[in-house]
Design goal:
Helix content is 58%, strand content 5%. By secondary structure, the protein is mainly alpha-helical. The chain has a domain of 55 residues. Strands 1-2 form a two-stranded antiparallel sheet. A hairpin with a 2-residue loop joins strand 1 and strand 2. The termini are far apart.
Amino acid sequence: MLCKNTNNIKIKIYYKTYCKILTKVIKMAKRQHFNKLNKRSVNKSKTMWNLVKTEMNTRVSNDKLPLTIKGKSMKNYHELANVFNEYFINPFPSLTLQSARDLKVPSPSKRSKAFLV
């Protein structure tokens, strides 16, 4: 670009001024465009959120990450729900009723006072 390689101050000032004017024109054109879209829309809040999304360049990704449980890829939602249900229903499969009775819980006086508030 000529303005970056020159030592002429007038060209640099002209370039900076032109850039500022161009920025203002672009902002005003966007504002007018968005106002026009908003006036024409029936659902104004949805329209405004779509405008915000486009300006922020956020895209909703439909890419689904593969979920593997015990080396098996889960694609069926019904099967996946069953796996989660089984996990939360039976979180300690090796713990039997007798071994649960054998667990000794310390008395409140022996517990750490750090947990007491």
